[in-house]
Amino acid sequence: MAKEETPGISKDLQELQRKMSLLIDSVQNNSKVVAFMKSPVGQYLDRHPFVALTLLVFVVVSAVPVGFFLLLVVLTSLAAFVGVMLLEGLVISVGGLSLFCVLCGLGFVSLAMSGAIIVCYVAVSSFISHWCSPRKQQIGIPPVGYR
């Protein structure tokens, strides 16, 4: 069985090697890669493969913390936005409730003042009509303002 698996594995490895070489060729023939390799940084990295490998490992390894940091920034921004909305909603709700209470109180005060004004009006008009009544002139009480 081991001899039967060996030709299949070697064919799979050859197929994998062919796909990898095609991938490498497509990357090396990319116009952006060619332009980068002609730049001074690309030429330096081509002459110093250890530095290129170190830079590649650093970029790959630092992608995870940078990703977490960006996720933290986005989540913090969303939390602040939601917090501001909740706080603004709370402030508006408390302000609206306070305004409602003040307006209800003013309504009751205006009802009481209207009642008092009506009572005063009725009382004053009653006193004036009683004081200036024709009945009083018949008994000899001079009208108001009479000399």
Could you outline the blueprint of secondary structure elements for this entry?
Blueprint: H1 2-28, H2 31-38, H3 40-47, H4 49-131, H5 134-138
Kindly provide the radius of gyration, computed on alpha-carbon positions and rounded to a whole number of angstroms: 48 Å
- Derived from helix and strand composition plus strand pairing, the structural class reads mainly alpha
Largest sheet: none
Overall morphology: rod-shaped
- Count of helical regions: 5
Count of DSSP strands: 0
Estimated helix fraction: over 70%
SSE run: HHHHH
Poorly predicted regions = none
End-to-end Cα distance:
144 Å
Mean pLDDT score = 86
Amount of beta strand: under 5%
Walkthrough of the structure:
The protein is an all-alpha fold. It is 89% helix and 0% strand. The protein has 5 helices and no strands. The protein is rod-shaped and about 140 Å long. The mean pLDDT is 86.
Comma- or semicolon-separated keywords:
mainly alpha; rod-shaped; single chain; 0% strand; 147 residues
Offer a quick outline of the entry.
The chain is mainly α and 147 residues long.
